[in-house]
Description:
The chain is α/β, with parallel strands linked by helices. It is built from 17 helices and 14 strands. The strands form three sheets. The chain has a seven-stranded mixed beta sheet with strand order 9-8-7-6-10-11-12, sandwiched between helices. The model has no long low-confidence stretch (mean pLDDT 98). (2Z)-2-iminopentanedioic acid is lined by residues 94-96, 115, 118, 168, 170, 197, 351, 379-380, 383.
Amino acid sequence: MSDAVQKKLDHFMQGLIKRNPHEAVFHQAVQEVAESVMPYLLEHPKYLEANILERMTEPDRVIIFRVCWEDDEGRIRTNRAWRVQFNNAIGPYKGGLRFRPGVTLSVLKFLGFEQVFKNSLTGLPMGGGKGGANFNPKGKSDREVMRFCQSLMIELHRHIGEDTDVPAGDIGVGGREISYLFGQYKRLANRFVGTLTGKGLQFGGSLVRTEATGYGCIYFCENMLERIGDSLRGKSVAISGSGNVAIYAAEKAHQFGAKVVTMSDSTGFVHDPDGIDADKLAYIKDLKEVRRGRISEYAQQYSGVEFHADQRPWGVPVDVALPCATQNEISGDDAKELIKNGVLAVCEGANMPTKLAGVHAFLEAGTLYAPGKAANAGGVAVSGLEQSQNALRISWDHAEVDARLKTIMKEIHEKCVTHGKDGDGVNYVRGANVAGFVKVADAMLAYGIV
Ligand code: NDP
Ligand code: 2IT
């Protein structure tokens, strides 16, 4: 990085940190984008003169509200919920809701900011937003989750709409939660429209939405490997997480002939050197989605499997690593360990799973490294297709949606190559950030001072 770029970057980040104190993960997400985009801005001064990066790092608005609900013992419980409507320059706000105890405004701002770039990359008309609550669905009965979702929607419904803001799932928000949320939205609005995505297939959901993030991540990984004349066939794969994204990444990786040797949850990881095949994955789906159990049970079910409590899987030597759990789950040291063990590709199913030191390590080592905003865009892309189907009042079949998802992931890969070409290689971080930035920035320039 030249001195001029570094100076501009430092000045910009100092201002951002001053305006948003105590928001470490938001700073991190902006820093990663700013490092990529700043050299491009200096080459294209029209964006600098219009102060576009400052404007893009300030959310359009943030809604914060109290959610009161009654638990099964009749106690009154209070949670805090947010909706960060980050940027609607290229379409209605779009992005998931996260229910997790540690959720803060900083987390949702980082996710909303990432979403702006990701949604731009999909090529679909979607702005960026994110929301959620510091609510823990774990250990709650279905009725408690229902009452929480209904109470949350009483406030949220006035801020969302099919042409305004369209929420979906994220950590802790799956099919069950979206159903409760949509059922309540429909009652309050007295309209049956696609204001949420990830809905059940009986009431406006799209085929392939459940699988889309994990499948899309594997399609992207295959695109990266194809570019260097390789493929996933025969590769060993470490996956973190065992939720929605991890399960369908594992399923598609297996279908592509790879051997998935790890999965994890917040209690630790399992290492299965024989590989997690379709039958074993069916067990994990039932364990996590139906019984809502812990990943350690997998090690009791199958022989030759080790459970490593409170650890992440990055010390296991593999060809491909797919972080699919949460933010900051690959440290600088984890990245170095993966590189030392000869990792070929790292493809992010989760949002910002790699700390900045890890990102820099992968880029320096020439690892095929796909940031989440490109690699996990398949989920929101199929959400966009769900919106289109709802608006048209039709349903496409599985093959149609899957083909569109494949095409979208391929086009995102091409955009990353166009903007990230680096000698013979590709800097996918720069490619994704610059390509995502340009569409939104050009729209904002066209609107004048907004
Ligand atoms: P789920 O709630 O279905 O699964 C989350 C998984 O990650 C669980 O295995 C969970 O373990 C684990 N996990 C969550 N938080 C932590 C933590 N702090 N430490 C260790 N493990 C953790 O969520 P999703 O699969 O939907 O989301 C996973 C990631 O993918 C997130 O980063 C999300 O933002 C991103 N993403 C999701 C999309 C979607 O369509 N769902 C789209 C694009 C990105 P446990 O069961 O113990 O909690
Ligand atoms: O991070 C994400 O892209 C998601 N959680 C999915 C968002 C969506 O609107 O489908």
